[in-house]
């Protein structure tokens, strides 16, 4: 079965073809970063309009990669939520329009389920059950994953997500948009002993997170510097920030493994590409003797491959989850634990 995946939840347009027998056949992604950069963040209306322009050319690119035609598609999966309402509506309308034209079933996929399952695209995928640390621009959650759709929330952020804290702190340092990756790169040149920032909720005895105070601590450091703060001081602050956030993420993940008794940890979402986080997790995993699984770097950010995979896994377990009724709705807010197991 060949499933087309359509991702349009925010500022990336992603399409992919996934075959349940052969794996990923092709994928294409367009990022809108350059367009939104001058505004310092995503402009929803511009994002929606760009999805309209990009989706069908990307589809042709993916079909060419796969050596397939539109009629080789057996089903179409699209991101139904969460995300920006207008952006989601574009992807849903394209997916359902193609479904109607080709007489193929369609199904809406939860964006975060796509991220959780994305490490399964790798050559050595984890087996269920596992603990997942989902860390993206809008979400920081620890989940127990017992199967497709079987998710138990263990802990989450009570304020800013880790990705938000990265981006906001980067903006305070004048690093532009998107700031998270730039801050991570700058941190590599910082002195780890120059500053020490708080580790919010590190000893809270639960699995929740809080990062707004960490961002405030960065603001205080920046304000205590002269207006012409030098690049080395910026790097030192960036290093202190990354050291703090990585220590909290790693400690909570290890605590989640201990609480559940599991030995497999999956890292998913854009922050999962952070080199310092990966190095710290790999080090402690070796010492504590558990395994850590990551998506390939190209699949850490939003992409169509994870949506195609999630749709295919659901269809394999329950073909009735797709429909040939082509009316659609989207869910800009959609708790992951509302999904049904299949």
Automatic annotation (TrEMBL):
* Locations listed in the record: Cytoplasm
Q: Which reaction equation describes what this protein catalyses?
A: L-threonylcarbamoyladenylate + adenosine(37) in tRNA = N(6)-L-threonylcarbamoyladenosine(37) in tRNA + AMP + H(+)
What does the UniProt cofactor note say?
Binds 1 Fe(2+) ion per subunit.
Supply the EC number(s): 2.3.1.234
Q: Which residues bind Fe cation?
A: 111, 115, 302
Check the record and name the InterPro entries matching this protein.
Answer: ATPase_NBD (IPR043129), Gcp-like_dom (IPR000905), KAE1/TsaD (IPR017861), Peptidase_M22_CS (IPR017860), TsaD (IPR022450)
Q: Name one Pfam family in it.
A: TsaD
Q: What does this protein do?
A: Required for the formation of a threonylcarbamoyl group on adenosine at position 37 (t(6)A37) in tRNAs that read codons beginning with adenine. Is involved in the transfer of the threonylcarbamoyl moiety of threonylcarbamoyl-AMP (TC-AMP) to the N6 group of A37, together with TsaE and TsaB. TsaD likely plays a direct catalytic role in this reaction.
What name goes with this protein? tRNA N6-adenosine threonylcarbamoyltransferase
Species assigned in the record: Noviherbaspirillum aridicola
Q: What is the lineage of its organism?
A: Bacteria, Pseudomonadati, Pseudomonadota, Betaproteobacteria, Burkholderiales
């Amino acid at each position: 079965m060949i499933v087309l995946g359509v991702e349009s939840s925010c500022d990336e347009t992603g399409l992919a073809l996934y075959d349940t027998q052969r794996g990923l056949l092709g994928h294409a992604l367009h990022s809108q970063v350059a367009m939104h950069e001058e505004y310092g963040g995503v402009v929803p209306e511009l994002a929606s309009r760009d999805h309209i322009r990009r989706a069908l050319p990307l589809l042709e690119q993916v079909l060419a990669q796969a050596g397939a035609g539109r009629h080789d598609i057996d089903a179409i999966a699209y991101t139904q939520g969460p995300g920006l309402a207008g952006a989601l509506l574009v992807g849903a309308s394209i997916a359902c329009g193609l479904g109607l034209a080709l007489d193929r079933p369609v199904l809406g996929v939860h964006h975060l389920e796509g991220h959780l399952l994305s490490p399964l695209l790798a050559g050595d995928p984890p087996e269920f059950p596992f603990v997942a640390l989902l860390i993206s621009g809008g979400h920081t959650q620890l989940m127990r994953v017992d199967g497709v759709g079987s998710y138990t929330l263990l802990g989450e952020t009570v304020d800013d997500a880790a990705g938000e804290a990265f981006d906001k702190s980067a903006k305070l340092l004048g690093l532009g948009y998107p700031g998270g990756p730039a801050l991570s790169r700058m941190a590599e040149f910082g002195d780890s002993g120059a500053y020490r920032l708080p580790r919010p909720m590190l000893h809270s005895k639960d699995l929740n997170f809080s990062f707004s105070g960490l961002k405030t601590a960065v603001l205080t450091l920046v304000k205590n510097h002269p207006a012409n703060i030098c690049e080395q001081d910026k790097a030192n602050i960036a290093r202190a920030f990354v050291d703090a956030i990585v220590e909290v993420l790693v400690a909570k993940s290890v605590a989640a493994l201990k609480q559940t008794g599991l030995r497999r940890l999956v890292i998913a979402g854009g922050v999962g590409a952070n080199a310092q986080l990966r190095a710290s997790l790999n080090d402690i995993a070796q010492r504590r003797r558990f395994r850590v699984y990551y998506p390939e770097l190209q699949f850490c950010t939003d992409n169509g491959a994870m949506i195609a995979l999630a749709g295919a896994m659901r269809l394999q377990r329950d073909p009735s989850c797709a429909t040939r009724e082509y009316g659609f709705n989207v869910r800009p807010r959609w708790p992951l634990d509302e999904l049904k197991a299949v």
